[in-house]
Every structure is written in structure tokens, then in C-alpha cells.
Amino acid sequence: MKALIIESFGGPEVLQYKEIADPIINENEILVKMQAIGLNFADIYRRKGHYHLAGKPPYILGYEGAGIVEQVGSVVTKFKVGDRIAFADVPFANAELVAVPIEKVIPIPDEISFETASSVLLQGLTAHYLTNDSYQVKSGDTVLVHAAAGGVGQLLIQIAKILGAQVIGLTSSEAKSSAAYAAGADSVFLYSDKWTEKIKEKTNGHGVDVAYDSVGSTLEDSFNVTRIGGTVVFYGMAGGDPTPVDPRMLMDTSKTLTGGDLWNVLTSFEERKKRSGQLFNWISNAQIKITEPTIFSLEDGCKAHELLESRKSTGKILLLP
Description:
By secondary structure, the chain is α/β, with parallel strands linked by helices. Helices cover about 30% and strands about 25% of the residues. The mean pLDDT is about 95.
């Protein structure tokens, strides 16, 4: 099979499109012929050597994608050859064929395309977890979403609106503000503005009920614009490490700091099926709209990495074998 591999860490130029051996599945795995593969920032970090990678060189990047079952292991009964499936956390996805453990398989409804599944699963399941588990968004809440034009940001906005919240977004440019508004944000401010003051004005000094912070370096400001008794959900460090949080501040203001990591709840086939099912249902009912992805062939993975790393893309980037 063909695969996008790296034999050393570095820039996009280390990516190679090569013929390698087909994977051999275990009894509790299925072999999937890939139709679409999601590209994520984690792939860039792994390419640079900053994230854990499974196996030994040559490494195959990628953890998210969708395709057709080509072969099933001897003890697999839930799926058969020809079924449409996806996954969000299986290594070696940047290839024509991927061995997928049965507990990590996500069934795709007929009305959901391979491209849509590969565009939404990782970020969508993250946004679903953040709005249901890290903090349960309620009707009437005011929600702050950092990096509101990003993949998770746009989905956070849409899910929060489904749940009846008012949403304030933060972005780095006017162009990205447009993407946040298109996702349904009620107000959007720029990081270059005095955004903490603007949010306080917008909430009449009350503050937001919950702030979703994926930037990290903005954590102190997120607390500053969160109401007494409110919650800050910290789930990323795209802008650098946060300053340490003083627990006395949490006590004095009755505020809550919680983390968000999808893999703490996505622990079984049943959890994946239930959570993805709600996500797919929202998409089928047009309650969540997915931005048209930017598509590259797997062979052109280098160009795809360059685009994602430039931070000029606002929608998902897909690789097609």
C-alpha cells in the first residue's frame, strides 16, 4: 500500500509518499480501506517530534479518518466487509489501509459522507465532551469561546447555540471573525482589541458563565471575564503555557477551573457510538453545519501540512488516498 511517512523529524519536507507493507490485522481488528483522512495540528507536532508516536521509524502520521471495511478479524461480529466506518484515535491513518481495533470503530450513517465524518469526528467529539462533561451548557448561559474560528471553536459555538446559550467568540483577525459569526456566534472580538473590557461591557459587568480556553496564555484573562461562581475550561495551549492559578482566587471567587481531555471519556465502543451518534444526528438535521474542507491527495501531504501550519485555513484539511 501507499502511505505518507516520516523517517526523521522536521518540517513538511520530511514527509515521503512511499510504498510500504500492508498492515496485518489481529483477531479483534478490522482492515479499513481509507476514503478520507483528517489532518490535525497534532500531526504537525508529531512530525516535528514533539508528540508521542506509535511504533518505530518509518512513522506513519494521522489518527483520524473514514473508509470501508476490507477485512474483519476472526472474533469480530459487529461489522462486516463493505461497512462504512470512521475513527478518531487510531494511529497510522495516513495510508491506503489501516488496522482499526474494534473498540475504536465508529459506524457512519448512510447520510454522512466519508469527508464529513473525517472533518468532524475529532473536533466534534471534543466539542461535545466540553459542552456536556467539562461544563454542561444550559439554556440562558453566556459562553466564551477562544479561537472561535478553529475547528473545535466553530463546533463549540454551534453546540452551545443548540443548547440555548449566547456565545461570545475571540479570534485573531477580521476574516476569522466572519467564520465565527457564520458558525452562529452572537458577538466576536479580536485578541488585538481590549477584549476583556469589551466582554465585561457586553455582559454588563456580570461576566460569562463559562470560558473555553484553548490558548493557554490567556487563562488569567479568562478568569477575569468569568462571573463569580463561573467555570473556566482549559483544554489547550496553542498560545503557550498558562500562568499558575492561585487556589485562593478560586476560593475567594467561587470559580471553578477544570480540564478537558476527550480520551478520559472516550473509553469504549459504546461511548464512541453514543457520542458520535448525537453529533451525526445534529449534522443530519442541519443543526450543525460543517465548513467545506480543503482537500489534498495523500501524495500531496507536504502541501497540506504547509497550509495547516500557516494557520491560514479556517475549515478542515483532508487527505484523500
